[in-house]
Q: What sequence folds into this?
């Protein structure tokens, strides 16, 4: 017994020791679930190419912001850009400003679970707001039926789903609703975490997708990759120009067209409810939150190298995962911003 | 008065062969003034104090934990005071926090759990202590123990994939149709909700209530049973007497079960629906204290937010400690009373 | 009272008796049923996916099927191991105190506190570990997870150690003392070896409890998609993996979650069965 014990202990020590001796080749990040499908692909591919591991935990934009503020991660990710107060707090606690690097653009789609109805259900902003305010509760409500004459809607309750965690996706969605519904703006407002009038909470984009997928009659807002990967239908939404648009890549890119030319220097901008005939109304950039003055310069260099890769080669992975690559003007600004990271 | 323990043959033999495997002196037993014997052997003193140190460590662990939790929630306590307990706003954006929806959800799901588990547990305890043949008692007890050993995440997994659809498809509509006049039994048709959480909690607390109730009932002396039977009582009437003797012990067991239900996290988080609205419909989604900590802890963006969550943890800590302490005292006193 | 009304009352009493007995039987069945239902369902969903891949491979990116949980399994093993290194000595030595010197009010207080400690929700233990370890260290770590698991193990180990030592027949102790062996040596060299088998299974029980915990690891060890054996980094664990994969809408992930759940439940059951078998020979000393 004693011998086997000492063998085990010896092995354990060797394992731990070898680990400490090995150079630090892992960086930790946390944040949004919105870009998680493409980030997990990026980090996997980058790890294979360059041997550096980026460990990303998709805990929601709120979580990403928090961890960046506390300095418990090397980088964060969020689809809600930081507010002035949040940036001030990070400056105080970590002694560094935060640089926002938009990485991709994604669409927030309304997915539903109505097997008999099929794909491409049409809805308007007013109906959407009413559903989330709890005013429309049944699928065969007149308002929905009247714009979908080709579909038979069941006499079933709409099982509304929303995020239970602090979410950039919620931020994009509630920002849109605030723009199209004065009642929503007044009663609920915009934010990463809002006081939902109705509905079931799911954690992360995956949680909401799971809730809708499991409940017949379910209805929720998720990033498009989650809906497609789970073979779930999503709605055609009426945009500012009056057209019913689906969230395909051209529609998302069209949404960013206006913003691209007027991109502010700090790259913090919302692109919901864009004008433009082809634009899909609920789109957003998602950002990597990077310390301008990283404490660990070695890690800072690795992050800068990864950013360069992500903003050039990484963009090629976007289409397959239903994210829109950055418009070229944004991409140029982004690449230039990398040089602002203080690596000395 | 000093007494020397005489050198025994083992020691003597060792002396003869020239080697002693112990460097310490033979124990000298000293009889002190009040008659207790105390060893002055150095090894004994060291040993006793070393073990005492560790035992003291275990003892103080609870206080250490309480201290750190209190420190962590100081921001939130300072800002909200007692109103934290009855405010239902939970607004991370504005920095306004009140724990009422979570306290409510925790209490409701726990009460549902107790309502389901208590009769069943007492029934099984009754079966195990009074009715079952000897050969059946061990396997059944063992199976109840195994039920307690199932990790809570597995309960959660099963709850989410099996129980939720079951409640959504059968239990919910059944209750709404036949008991729908009582608003308590109506609610949203999600399947996720406080009723489902209560059901899964009930399964999880069954073992602890059962095993302690059974122990208490077994501890009731046979003289009680014999007396009743001698007077012509049926098995059930005899059992009724045993039950009434074991009443406080069963109450203690129930409190321990309640304590477990209040703090259960993973199983509840996956089935309760995570909705911060206070609702008096059992089928509606809710939120429990443990669930909100699990969901929001890693993303509390401000110090106040984190402090509010730690304060909820402190509440849970305090309540479960009090429940456990009182329950253990009750159970201990009942079994002591009957073992004499 | 006529004999007829007596007979009526008797019949009613007999009926009540039969009714309550059958109710009791029924509740026994109802209570045991979930055990088989849950285990059976986990078995059916999980067993198909428990293959070599599961144990050897790393997780794949979102949306791609296949892959395994190698890093989670190793992570769990490491955290349980380190947690045991911290928690077991504390529990065992405290248990020795309770058995040897614990028949006084302080011993009763320690026993009481240990029981109270075992009733603290594991999520609260996780919060404590966060405050004590993660905040000062300024990052998540496998070490923080280990600390949380250690705290969870201590009550079970303490109590079982005490019970197992007390089970050793007094005659052994008396014989040793009569031979002039000092009390402390008696405990260590004579009593403990005899109680070892029971203490070991008590330890296994404590470890099994810690192994099944998810909540305290959520914000201490956090999680890790990559292979990491460093205690200074976030660490993957089997239980948190089950949680993440279960909530996800990806069918492939759900499948893996069930496989992991099945592995977990088997391990825990095996330990419990072992414990029961060992302590069944309670009234004998067993083999040393």
A:
């Amino acid at each position: 017994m004693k011998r086997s014990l000492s063998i085990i202990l010896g092995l354990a020590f060797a394992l731990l020791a070898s680990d400490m001796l090995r150079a630090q080749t892992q960086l930790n990040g946390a944040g949004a679930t919105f870009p998680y499908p493409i980030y997990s692909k990026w980090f996997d591919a980058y790890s294979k190419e360059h041997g550096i591991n980026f460990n990303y935990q998709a805990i929601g934009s709120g979580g990403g912001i928090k961890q960046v503020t506390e300095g418990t991660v090397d980088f964060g990710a969020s689809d809600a850009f930081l507010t002035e107060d949040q940036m001030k707090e990070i400056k105080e606690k970590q002694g560094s400003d935060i640089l926002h690097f938009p990485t991709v653009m994604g669409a927030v789609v309304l997915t539903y679970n109505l097997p008999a109805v099929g794909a491409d259900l049409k809805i308007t902003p007013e109906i959407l707001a009413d559903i989330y305010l709890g005013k429309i509760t049944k699928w065969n409500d007149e308002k929905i039926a009247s714009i979908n004459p080709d579909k038979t809607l069941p006499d079933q309750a709409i099982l509304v789903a929303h995020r239970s965690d602090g979410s950039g996706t919620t931020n994009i969605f509630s920002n849109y609703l605030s723009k199209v519904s004065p009642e929503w703006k007044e009663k609920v407002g915009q934010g990463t975490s809002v006081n939902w009038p109705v509905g079931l909470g799911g954690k992360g984009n995956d949680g909401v997708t799971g809730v809708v997928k499991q409940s017949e009659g379910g209805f929720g807002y998720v990033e498009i990759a989650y809906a497609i990967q789970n073979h779930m239908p999503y709605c055609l939404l009426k945009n500012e120009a009056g057209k019913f648009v689906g969230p395909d890549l051209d529609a998302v890119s069209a949404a960013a067209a206006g913003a691209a030319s007027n991109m502010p220097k700090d790259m913090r901008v919302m692109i919901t409810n864009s004008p433009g005939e082809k634009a899909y109304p609920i789109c957003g950039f998602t950002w990597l939150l990077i310390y301008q003055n990283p404490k660990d310069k070695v890690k800072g260099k690795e992050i800068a190298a990864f950013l360069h890769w992500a903003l050039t080669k990484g963009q090629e992975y976007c289409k397959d995962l239903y994210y829109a690559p950055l418009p070229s003007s944004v991409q140029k600004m982004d690449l230039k911003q990398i040089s602002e990271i203080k690596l000395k | 008065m000093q007494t020397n323990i005489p050198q025994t043959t083992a020691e003597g033999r060792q002396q003869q062969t020239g080697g002693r495997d112990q460097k310490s002196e033979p124990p000298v037993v000293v009889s002190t003034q009040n008659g207790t014997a105390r060893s002055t052997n150095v090894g004994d003193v060291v040993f006793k104090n070393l073990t005492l140190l560790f035992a003291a460590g275990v003892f103080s662990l609870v206080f250490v934990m309480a201290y750190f939790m209190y420190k962590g929630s100081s921001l939130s306590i300072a800002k909200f005071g007692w109103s934290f307990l009855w405010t239902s706003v939970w607004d991370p954006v504005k920095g306004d926090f009140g724990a009422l929806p979570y306290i409510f959800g925790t209490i409701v799901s726990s009460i549902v759990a107790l309502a389901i588990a208590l009769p069943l547990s007492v029934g099984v305890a009754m079966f195990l202590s009074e009715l079952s043949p000897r050969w059946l008692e061990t396997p059944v007890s063992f199976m109840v123990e195994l039920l307690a050993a199932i990790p809570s995440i597995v309960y959660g997994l099963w709850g989410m994939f099996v129980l939720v659809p079951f409640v959504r498809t059968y239990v919910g509509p059944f209750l709404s149709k036949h008991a729908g006049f009582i608003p308590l039994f109506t609610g949203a048709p999600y399947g996720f909700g406080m009723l489902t959480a209560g059901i899964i909690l009930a399964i999880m607390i069954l073992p602890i209530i059962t095993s302690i109730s059974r122990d208490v009932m077994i501890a009731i002396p046979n003289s009680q049973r014999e007396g009743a039977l001698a007077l012509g009582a049926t098995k059930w009437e005899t059992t009724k007497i045993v039950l009434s003797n074991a009443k406080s012990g069963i109450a203690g067991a129930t409190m321990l079960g309640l304590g477990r239900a209040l703090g259960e996290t993973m199983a509840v988080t996956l089935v309760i629906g995570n909705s911060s609205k206070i609702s008096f419909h059992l089928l509606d989604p809710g939120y429990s204290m443990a669930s909100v900590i699990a969901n929001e802890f890693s993303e509390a963006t401000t110090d106040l937010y984190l402090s509010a969550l730690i304060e909820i943890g402190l509440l849970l800590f305090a309540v479960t400690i009090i429940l456990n302490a009182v329950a253990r005292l009750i159970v201990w006193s009942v079994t002591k009373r009957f073992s004499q | 009272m006529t004999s007829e009304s007596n007979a009526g009352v008797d019949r009613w009493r007999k009926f009540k008796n039969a009714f309550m007995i059958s109710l009791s039987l029924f509740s026994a069945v109802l209570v045991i049923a979930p055990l088989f239902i849950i285990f059976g369902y986990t078995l059916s969903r999980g067993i198909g996916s428990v293959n070599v891949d599961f144990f050897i491979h790393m997780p794949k990116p979102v949306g791609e099927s296949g892959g395994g949980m190698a890093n989670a399994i190793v992570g769990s093993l490491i955290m349980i191991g380190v947690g045991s290194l911290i928690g077991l000595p504390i529990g065992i030595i405290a248990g020795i105190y309770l058995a040897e010197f614990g028949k006084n009010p302080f011993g009763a207080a320690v026993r009481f506190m240990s029981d109270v400690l075992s009733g603290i929700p594991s999520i609260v233990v996780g919060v404590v570990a966060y405050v004590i370890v993660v905040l000062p260290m300024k990052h998540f770590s496998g070490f923080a997870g280990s600390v949380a698991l250690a705290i969870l193990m201590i009550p079970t180990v303490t109590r079982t150690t005490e019970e197992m030592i007390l089970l050793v027949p007094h005659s052994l102790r008396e014989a040793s003392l009569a031979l002039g062996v000092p009390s402390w040596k008696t405990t260590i060299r004579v009593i403990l070896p005899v109680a070892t088998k029971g203490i070991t299974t008590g330890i296994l029980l404590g470890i099994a409890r810690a192994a099944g915990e998810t909540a305290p690891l959520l914000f201490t060890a956090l999680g890790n998609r990559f292979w990491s054996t460093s205690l200074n980094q976030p660490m993957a664990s089997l239980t948190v993996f089950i949680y993440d994969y279960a909530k996800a809408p990806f069918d492939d992930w759900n499948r893996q979650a069930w496989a992991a759940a099945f592995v977990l439940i088997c391990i825990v059951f095996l330990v419990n069965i072992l414990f029961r078998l060992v302590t069944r020979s309670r009234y004998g000393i067993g083999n040393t």
Chain B touches chain C through 95 residues (CB under 8 Å).
